[in-house]
Amino acid sequence: MDNQQVIELSQRYLMSTYSPLPVAFVRGEGCRLWDADGNEYLDFVAGIAVASTGHCHPRVVEAICEQAGQLMHTSNLYHIPLQAQLAQSLAEISCADRCFFCNSGAEANEAAIKLPRKWAGMNRSGECFEIITAKQSFHGRTLATLAATGQEKYQKAFRPLPPGFTYVPFNDVGALEEAISEQTCAVMLESIQVEGGINVPDDDYLPRVEDLCEEQGILLILDEVQTGMGRTGHWFGYEHADITPDIITLAKALGSGFPIGACLAKEGVASAFQPGDHASTFGGNHLACAAALATIDVIEDEGLVANAARMGSLLEELLTDELSEIDGFDHIRGRGLLLAVQVTPEVSAKAIQNQCLAAGLVVNAMGDDRVRLAPPLMISEADCQQAVAILADAVRKVAGNLNPHR
Ligand SMILES: Cc1ncc(COP(=O)(O)O)c(C=O)c1O
C-alpha cells in the first residue's frame, strides 16, 4: 500500500478519534523514518516521546524477538522473572521501592489514583479520597484520568466524571495550600506540564509542594509518563527539583514503543495495595518487560540521559540563534529533549508542522501556536543542525507569507 491507499482505508474503517497527518510511516531506524511512498524523514516527535532509544534499536529488537520465541504471556497468576528484574531496575534508578505494571500512561495513573485512596483509608481518619491536580494538566483519557486532567475541553462531552478531584493553577503553591482539606489524600502533578503546553514550573515550586505534602500528611504523585526515562536530561523530571515523590507513573518511553506502563511507589505507600486490590491481565508480561529491560540497558550503556541533556542544550541554543531574527518567533521553553517553539498568535503552528513534514522533518503542532520537539534521545549534533535548518526555513516561510512585503 502507498500513503494514499493507507489513508483511504483508514478513513473508511477507523473511528475518527484522531486527525492524522497525510503520511503513513512504514519503517524506522534511529531517528529516521520512511513512509509508504519511500520518502525519508528526520523524526523529532519519536511517536510522542516514546522511541527514546531510536526506532528499532537492534538490542531492543533482539530482546523482543528472543522473548517472543520463548514465552510472551502467562499472566500475573504466576511469577514473571523479567517483571521482577524490571521492578528492581526501576527501584534502583528512582526513589521508589515497588512497582505495579500495566500497559499505558492512563492505566499507570489509574493505579496512582487508587493507591492513595486505599492508603488514606488505612492511614487517615474520616472521608479522605480527594486528589488535587493542576489546571492545564494531562493525565489520560480513561474516565478517572480524564477527571484528574484539569482541562475542560477534554472533559465536557463525557460528564459525569468520577468525583474526588480538585484543580489548582500550576506553579502556585499558595493556591495549593488553600485547596488542601480534610478530604485531601494526595496531590498529583507533572514535573513539566507537557500536553498543557510544555509549562516548566519555577525551581522552588516542586520542593515547596513536597514540603507542604509532608506537613499535611498527604501523598505526592508525580506523573512522569512523558517526562520520565531520561527525556529531560535526568532519568525523571522530579530530579531537577531534588524531591522524592511518594508515587511516580511511567509509560511512553519505558518500552521503546512496546506498550508498557508502571506505577512506582515508596514502601510505606505501596504496601497499601494488597492481593485483589488492583490488577491487569497483560500488565508486565514477559514480552513487555523484555522490551523495557532492554530499553533501560540501552539508555544506560549509551549514556542517553546525558545525551538528552547535552543535545537539549545544543538544540535550544541552535533554535534561539536561528529563530530569534525571524518575525513570528516568540521563545523556546522546555527541558532536555522536550522543547516547545512558541510562535506569535498570528503564526500557525500547524502550517509550520506541515511545511516541516513536506521538507522531511517530523515535528508536532501543539495547539495553535506551539511546535513540540521530542526527538529520540540518541540524536546527534548533525541531526540537531539539520532539524533546526528545516524548522527555521519553515517558520520563515509561514511567517513570511503573513508579511509578503518584508
Ligand atoms: C503526562 C501524561 N500522562 C498520561 C498520559 C496518558 O498516557 P497514555 O496515552 O499512554 O494513556 C500522557 C499522554 O500523553 C501524558 O503526557
Q: How would you describe the overall organization of this protein?
A:
- By secondary structure, this protein is an alpha/beta fold.
- The protein has 2 domains: 3-56 and 303-402, Aspartate Aminotransferase, domain 1 (Alpha-Beta Complex); 58-301, Type I PLP-dependent aspartate aminotransferase-like (Major domain) (Aspartate Aminotransferase, domain 2).
- Helices cover 40% and strands 17% of the residues.
- It has helices spanning 3-13, 46-49, 58-70, 81-93, 105-123, 143-148, 152-155, 173-179, 205-216, 267-270, 286-301, 304-323, 349-358, 381-402; strands at 25-29, 32-35, 40-43, 98-102, 130-134, 165-168, 184-190, 219-223, 247-250, 261-265, 329-335, 338-343, 361-362, 364-366, 370-373.
- The strands form 3 sheets. A 7-stranded mixed beta sheet has the order 4-10-9-8-7-5-6, with helices on both faces. A 4-stranded mixed beta sheet has the order 1-2-3-13.
- A hairpin with a 4-residue loop joins strand 2 (32-35) and strand 3 (40-43).
- Helix 4 (81-93) runs parallel beside helix 11 and helix 12 runs parallel beside helix 14.
- It is globular, with a radius of gyration of 21 Å.
- The chain starts with a helix and ends with a helix.
- The model has no long low-confidence stretch (mean pLDDT 97).
- The protein binds pyridoxal-5'-phosphate (PLP).
